[in-house]
Amino acid sequence: MSTNKKTAVITGASSGIGVELARLLAADGYELVITARRAERLQQLAHELGQLHGTRVTVVASDLAQPDAAGALWQKITAVAPVVDVLVNNAGVGDTGNLVDAAPVTLARMIQLNVLSLTTLTRLALPGMVQRKRGRILNVSSLAGFQPGGPGMAVYYASKSYVLSFSRGIRRELAGTGVSVTTLCPGVTSTEFGEVAKAQDTPLFNWTQPMRADAVALAGYRGLQSGRAIVVPGLLNKILAASAKYSPTVIGLEFNRLLLKRR
User: Fold this and answer.
1) How many Å apart are CA 17 and CA 15, to the nearest integer?
2) Which position among 30, 156, 157, 221 bears the catalytic label?
3) Does pTM surpass 0.85?
4) Are strands 179-184 and 135-140 parallel, antiparallel or unpaired?
5) Is residue 1 part of a domain?
6) What averages of pLDDT result for each successive group of 10 residues across the chain (263 residues)?
7) How many domains, in total, are found in the chain?
């Protein structure tokens, strides 16, 4: 990547919100480095964006749920794109069920992907951005990040609370540097998440109307470009995020337990 165009890195770009963010960035003239586990899907997206926008897209297949994967990925990224203007930490995974029944390897992968890899990539991207006095980071959390906890998805909810808290903290650290950190907190969205997390048979998914992934991505992208701190797409989600501040913890926990109860 040797042109004067800006470069964006997107994790979890093989489906859902990640795909839609890649499309928005490509349409806006960015060159892209896209990464996920599924190389074939990434190649298809790269071909699509090249055909539509003439976008240079570098595909780097990586499983960020593996230990040390983030550092190895960053080395590959900087080999083709020494200057990263935008980092989108979109990759994430969830799982339903009580902790006592969860496979330890599943929990380890979730924490590695949702927390450790996101943190590492952010840390590795920041020095260059701060030195250049410009850069944007979009960390994808969830409406779950505002909740006191999620009985039935305890580790997932905790990981998304971490992303929200982490992003708020470093945003304040970076004040005045020219680098912005935006946190996208979607509610239920039409992606593969529900199926992968085995959450489609829960009231959370059956009682709510999922937002479209492209609408969520557009809200996040606008927030990223305007330097907003937190983006909660959708009116109902905004109400739920605000109400979490004022609901007693015991009520919030019981409500979430009912929402996440599998049939």
Assistant:
1) 7
2) 156
3) yes
4) parallel
5) no
6) 78 96 97 97 97 96 97 97 97 93 96 98 98 98 94 96 98 98 94 61 70 96 98 93 88 83 71
7) 1
> Which segments within 37-91 are labelled E, that is strand?
57-61, 86-89
Task: Supply the CATH number for residue 172's domain.
Answer: 3.40.50.720
194 with 200: CB under 8 angstroms?
A: yes
Residue at 128: amino acid letter: G
Range of the domain at 102: 7-259
DSSP helix/strand/coil, 248: coil
Helix axes 104-111, 154-173, angle to 10 degrees: 20
Grouping H, G, I as helix, E, B as strand and the rest as coil, residue 206 is helix
Active site residue 156: yes
| In-domain check, residue 152 | yes
- Spell out where 37-191 has E strands: 57-61, 86-89, 135-140, 179-184, 189-190
